[in-house]
Structure formats: C-alpha cells, structure tokens
Amino acid sequence: MRADRLVSLVLLLRQRGHLTAATLARELEVSTRTVLRDIEALSAAGVPVYAERGRHGGFALLPGFQTELTGLNHDEAIALLAAGSGRGEQVFGLGSALASAMRKVAGALPESHRATASDAAQRFLIDPETDLLSRRLATEEVPATTMSEVRRAVLAGRKLRIHYAAADQTPQWRTVDPIGLVTVRDRGYLLATRSGTERTYRLSRVLAAEELPEPAQRPNRVDLDRIWRERCAQFLSGGDQITALVRVNPARREDLVSTALAVRAEDPDADGWLRLEVTFQDSRHAEWALWQLTTDAEALAPQSLRTSLRDSAAAIAARYGAPT
DNA sequence: AGCAACAGGATTAACACATC
DNA sequence: GATGTGTTAATCCTGTTGCT
C-alpha cells in the first residue's frame, strides 16, 4: 500500500510539477503528516524531491527526473484512459486504485502526447447506464479495417464518409462529423452530426468507412455520457413508439424482451409474474409481440392495446368457434 | 527603501491508535 | 513489539502588504 502511494506521489509531482503537502494529502487520501513522511522516505531512497518553504511553497522533483512505465504504447494508453474515464470509478469499489492507475498511465505518456491522449479518451464511452436497445442481441462484429477508420476519424477530429445500411433501407454513403464512440455490451455506436443534425449510427451497420482530410465540426470538449443519455431519451420518446405496461410469465420474459424495442422498468408482480414497461415500434408491433405470447402475457396499459388484443381474439374465436 | 506584521506552508516532535 | 498512520502544537522560513 505504501509503495503504491510513493509511486503515486512521484507521478503526481511529475505530472503537476509543484504541489503543497495539503494538496498531496487530498490527492492521496492521507494526512499531511503521512505525505511528509512519504516525502522523507522518497528522499532517503534517492528520489530528488525538494521542498520550497514559505508562501507559494510546496514540493517538487528536480527537473529532468524521469519515471518509466515501459511497454505501453500510445493506443494502449488511450484505451486505458478511455476505460477509466467513464463510470469506472464506481465499479467494484476500486475508485482510488483506478485513479492511481490513471495517473500512472497519463504519467507514462510523453509530455507532448499527454494532452492529446486525455482529449482522445473523452471521445470514448464504455458501457453507460442507459441503453438504446434493452433486448439482448448476438455480438455485433465490425470489420477491423472499418473500425480502425472510424476510430481514427473520431480521434483526429476529421470528417468521416460511411457506407451505412439503415434498417430496411438500401445502403448509402453519407459524410458525417464524428463526435465519439459508445459501446454498450456487445454493440458499438458512432455519435455524430450530419449537416448539423444529431445522428447515432450502429457500427455493425457501417459497411465501409473512409476518413476524410477535412476537420470535423465538433466542440473541443464533450460530455459523451450526457450526449448519450439525451439521445437515448430522445430515441425512447420519439416517433410512433408506444410504451405498454405488461405482465408476463417469467418463463416467457426473454421472448417478450427479445421482440421489444426497449425495457424501461421491471418489477416482480403479485403472483410470481413480472411487470414490465416495454417500448414497441408502434401499436401494431406491440399487438403482434403480445399475440405471440398468448396467455403468458397480459397488456395492462394502454387500454387501446387491450382492446385491440381482445377484438383480435374475439375475431379468431368467432372464426374457429363456429362448426365448419 | 526599509521595516514590521501577517499569512501560508514546511519542519519537527510527541503522543495515540490500529494492524500484523 | 514493529510499523504505519493520524492529531496536535510549536517553530521556522519566505513572500506579501501596509505603514513610515
């Protein structure tokens, strides 16, 4: 534990140049006295750390002192920074370990690349809380060459030409201004603008991609998590989509979820069934999905959906009820 | 310009507590 | 008991500010 902290202390000083004992204590989550002891230990170990007393004082490393984190290339550093830039700090109680690791990764990069890598990392969002599609899908493969082209354009801030196959449409070439990349479980999305309009593209539907030399029109700083949440909310409330409150037999839950567009809430119901808030493409889609589940599901709301299902059932009963 | 008061920060010491 | 850490207090150093 202490050895880790000593390394973190050196890297903090290396990155930030000059820090007071109080600041170091806050960063390392120890008392200032412990920081002073650590400084003393580093000094005894030969690390050229020195103190400047008085106002504007603090601790610093002698210029030219270097630490090495070998075997880490630029792409690896970006990948690690991206992994640590999202909600990673909340995962498994490893917040301080992750923060320490991120300092080491950032510290390992050459001074000239550090800002670029940190800026690049904010263009990636890994496993946000919100998902566009809650249903489970098979892993979506994206050809390495396509992915590489998309990633390069996102990182370099250049326009991107993609051959995109939207659902039920003939694939078309489009030129977009990439903002960032988001992965959700097995799926990847490209957040971009096209002619100033916000767009979200499924990476698995990008058949080919080509980075263009022109710079993309995009803000210098982005909050990818916020943008993603906004687009999810927009998606879930848009078009002719309808959200139904459904009771379902747990044995058929996957069948329901696999046909739905999204599932927003899920709670156990009184008799062992599940109560789900499910979004469908439109009312016909909802009716079809619930029809497949026969008596293993019941739409509680909206009333129009219940009425449609009842009318369909009555029509079927009338058709087959009468003797031939 | 010179001086004193003040503020901010480092330094040192003593002691207590927790863990191994 | 050794080690690591936290708390408290006194002291020293240095830069800033205001006054003469």
Structure description:
- 42% of the residues lie in helices and 26% in strands.
- The protein starts with a helix and ends with a helix.
- The protein has helices at residues 2-16, 21-28, 32-44, 74-85, 95-108, 111-121, 144-156, 224-237, 253-259, 283-292, 303-321; strands at residues 18-19, 49-52, 58-61, 124-126, 158-164, 172-184, 187-194, 197-202, 206-215, 242-248, 262-268, 274-280, 297-301.
- Mean pLDDT is 72; it is low at 68-72, 86-95 and 133-139.
- With 324 residues, the protein is α+β, with helices and mostly antiparallel strands.
- The strands form three sheets. Strands 4, 5, 6, 7, 8 and 9 form a six-stranded mixed sheet that branches. Strands 11-12-10-13 form a four-stranded antiparallel sheet.
- The longest helix is centred in the last third of the chain and has 19 residues, at 303-321.
- It binds a DNA duplex (20 and 20 nucleotides) through helix 3.
- It comes from Lipingzhangella halophila.
- GO terms for molecular function: DNA binding; DNA-binding transcription factor activity.
- Keywords: DNA-binding, Transcription, Transcription regulation.
Quick recap of the structure?
This protein has 324 residues and is α+β, with helices and mostly antiparallel strands. The chain folds into four domains: 2-61, Orthogonal Bundle (Arc Repressor Mutant, subunit A), CATH 1.10.10; 74-121; 144-223, SH3 type barrels (Roll); 242-321, Alpha-Beta Plaits, CATH 3.30.70. It has helices at residues 2-16, 21-28, 32-44, 74-85, 95-108, 111-121, 144-156, 224-237, 253-259, 283-292, 303-321; strands at residues 18-19, 49-52, 58-61, 124-126, 158-164, 172-184, 187-194, 197-202, 206-215, 242-248, 262-268, 274-280, 297-301.
